[in-house]
Specification:
This protein is α/β, with parallel strands linked by helices. It contains seven helices and ten strands.
């Protein structure tokens, strides 16, 4: 499951793993950045949910064991770019998930979660903070939710789930650049279509999607 947007905290992934949506996202484990598994409290929460590392080895192992994997491709860069006035996702240059999916012969299911990006707000920071976050491989943010605390705002989330996209490699386990590019292009188009089709259902007719 390719889940978007990441937001300041991928709260939608936790909801999908623990709520009544578990039957929808059957056997799903959320893949997270290794640095997240080192932060106190967050580490315990991720362990409780059953998260795995977003490394190629961990993802391949989970898929080989018959699990599905939930992945937020935007990562740290998207956390810093989260905007209260428009949707921003980082996807155009993220292609590693395509390689993993084709290599393991599993489909990519795009999921856009409306409301995820506004569960938390953040204090505005200068542009250089994003570059620093990337270099440190850790997000530098100052989030706030209800009552100005680290509690997500109480609002509905709309999970828009697209059709599975399955890529095939002419050489099993080793997809070519062209094969990766084709599937990635299909994913990008599917995400745009999902957003445009469902945004009205969430009352976001005028809220634009910026994809980088």
């Amino acid at each position: 499951f390719l889940m978007m947007p990441h937001g300041l905290y991928p709260f939608s992934g936790a909801c999908a793993s623990l709520s009544e949506m578990v039957p929808v996202f059957m056997n799903m484990q959320i893949a997270v950045a290794p640095v997240g598994q080192k932060v106190p409290m967050i580490r315990q929460l991720m362990g409780w949910i059953g998260c795995i590392s977003a490394s190629s080895r961990s993802i391949s192992k989970a898929l080989a064991n018959g699990r599905s994997v939930g992945l937020f491709p935007g990562g740290i860069g998207e956390m810093v770019q989260t905007d209260a006035n428009m949707e921003k996702i980082i996807l155009l240059k993220r292609k590693g998930f395509v390689r993993e999916a084709i290599k393991n012969s599993v489909p990519i299911v795009p999921v856009y979660v409306f409301g995820q990006s506004i569960t938390f707000g953040q204090l505005p920071l200068p542009a250089w903070v994003q570059e620093l976050s990337r270099r440190l491989r850790a997000s530098i943010i100052f989030p706030f939710g209800r009552f100005g605390m680290l509690v997500p705002r109480k609002l509905p989330l709309l999970y828009a789930i697209g059709a599975p996209i399955l890529g095939r490699a002419s050489t099993p386990g080793s997809p070519s650049t062209d094969e990766i590019e084709q599937v990635h292009s299909d994913v990008v188009s599917a995400v745009r279509d999902l957003y445009d089709f469902y945004k009205g259902f969430y009352g976001w007719d005028t809220r634009s999607l910026c994809m980088e």
